[in-house]
Amino acid sequence: MSKIAFVQKNKIPPSPAPISEVGFIGWVKQNLFSSWFNSLLTLISIYFIFIILRDFIPWAWGGHWNTKSLRECLDLNPDVACFSVLTARWKQLLFGLYPAEEYWRPTVTFIFLILSMIPILFPKYFKFFWFSVIYPGLAIWLLWGGSIWGVGIVYIGLSLGIFTFILLLKLVSKNTVLSGIGALIFLIVFFMFLSNYLVNFLNIILPIALPPVESLKMGGFTLSLIVGITGIVASFPIGILLALGRQSNLPIIKMICVGFIEFIRGVPLITLLFVASVLLNYFLPPGTNFDIVLRVIIMVTFFSAAYMAEVIRGGLAGLPLGQHEASASLGLTYWQSQRLVIMPQALKISIPGIVNTFIGLFKDTTLVSIISLRDPVGLASTIRADQTWNGIYWELYVAIGLMFFIFCFGMSQYSQYLERKLKTDK
Amino acid sequence: MKASSPPTDEKFKIGMLLSDTRYRGTSLQVITFIIFVAVFFWLVDNTLKNLALLGKDVSFNFLFLRAGYDINQRLIPYSSDSTHGRAAVVGILNTLLVAFVGCVIATILGLFVGILRLSKNWLVAKLMSAYIEGFRNVPVLLWIVMVFALLTEFTPAPKAFKGADPQATMLFFDSVAITNRGTYFPAPILNEGAYWVIFIFILSVFAVIFLKRYADKLKRETGKDFPTFLVSIAILIFPSTILFFALGSPISLEYPYLKGFNFKDGIHLRNSFLALTLALALYTSAFIAEIVRAGIMAISKGQTEAASSLGLRPNKIMNLIILPQALRIIVPPLISNYLNLTKNSSLAIAVGYMDVRGTLGGITLNQTGRELESMLLLMGFYLCVSLLISSVINYYNRSFQIVVR
User: Fold this and answer.
1) Greatest CA span in chain A, whole angstroms?
2) In the CATH hierarchy, which fold is given to the domain comprising A65-98+215-426?
């Protein structure tokens, strides 16, 4: 046996990494002070954050919440925020001039909105989809009031139309187009001649009605949500159709779609809103005068539909041509291949763009304040014109900005989550 | 199937117009076209009837009538005796001014923020993403009114500059005054000979461009580096400066000074202009930052690794490998953001800046009652700008896109 002075029999346990490389200190060293330039940037950033917090925290933290007017705030301590304006006017910021005793209606509409989105967002609850279908009518009735049969008749008519369509398809002709035309004729006859009598009749036997509320009374975030969400929901199908039209190889349809999209995208939303408020009456038969909020919603829908179309077109262009060819070679018709093969993939690619359009639309609802509707930004000017709160700026703007930020940021986070969830490759 | 083997024995039936793929496309187009034309004529007919009811006609003569209102910020001579047409031109120039200045600031800020957003420094990256999310998720209208409030409420009144011990002082050696009535800058005064100096300066800019081309050529052919940067600086500075002093300083600055309760002379930028431009620039810069970030991230990591295995330094990798490829992705959405900024400048009304919507689509429209004509012209202007910009994008895409198969 040769002489070996020392043999290590046991494994030496690894010694812990130097304290400057792991844990908090290591993280700080790697991420904040890795080089002189980085250290400089870090110090500048810390100084910057310090400056902002030094000014903001005392201002916001010590803010008054229960004074009667701005004057009183300034007398108490002029250096802190006067949030009393929010205490006094938060209802107005949320509901506009909606009658106070009816505040439950927008609230219930909003709660129902969340409920109606559940079946769409979470496939597990898809069996409650019927609620999402009746929600739009319900929301209109709750917000504008009047007799329930005013919107109910639309649902009755449409269900009867679908019933007629199926009946014709089963009994008369196997041709979907002819049955469709039959159902359309039925609908026209129904809404032109029969619906009025039916509404009157239903009003007599089942009078369910809420006190009507004028559109001009609506305001605040209720108005932003009404315009924003209606625009979002309505612009989505129109956008898909426009995108398909733009991709289509039928020249006339393509031309009309391209013209519409480029025109709408070429002009600012504000000019379209002005068209809605001053010019739309020129284009309609003499004597027609319909609701300003509805006119704004129509314009906003057109506007975002054009943007939506471009986003979806981007998604369609991103698909390899082989997908079209493969689905055609399987014998799928145009609409089948769009529904089953093309759209699911194209929409998945364009999710970020679609959500960005939604966010943009929601932010753009503030522009209605320029045609003197009372959205939060418009209300801020109204409140500031009031004697008691004259001269207040930041408290209102910060609150309104925060509300928009929460909505928009939430939406963009949801889109990122959806993107990750739907990612099937990589 | 149907299309590939047309049945020859089948007789033509009316129903086939809709059910047969051979005819369906055409008949669909014909139906669409008829509906389109019908709707169009219905709208035109309604418009004519409505105009007749109101006793109006369609005429653009109002553009040559006296406007009778004043515009406080203008780039070309204008008085209340000028015509509505001239007022519209003043508005158009004001819109373009805001758009141009806003785009320049937004690009610089956006590049800066977008690159810092990718910094390895955790704090800086988080700060920049807070900046981006903050500006992107709050409506631009709110930013405009907020910046306006900031400029009017938190700046001193001109009278605060008065006296032996003033509350406020001017910045940069008494040359810039920020007041609640706007910001005053020194104005350059061109005396005799000034144009020569400007001319020489422009010549030296061209010389620098040629020098750059020459240096590139030298590098490509011989591999030698030419000290382009230092020589360019020398070319830019020396000839103009020597001429400037040789001609006896023909360009001088006219400083703003306090007279009574207001500043006189110098360039006066109103708060409405500043607020609109700054707010639009800040808002758009957040979008540009995201575009820049996405463009740089889209270049695969292999490119960086390949470049560094060739022995290139980090800044050379950025300049020679990453940026040229990233620019191809960045530029088209960047330009469309310029278009958005231009369109958003129509929110000028919120701060009382007289852009084309304020003159042509605002006061002129209200005074003359020519809603239809004014809105048509206004939309035409915006459409022209947007078509111009989208043709620039298309041109760029055609010239710089990688050709695939």
Assistant:
1) 117
2) MetI-like fold (1.10.3720)
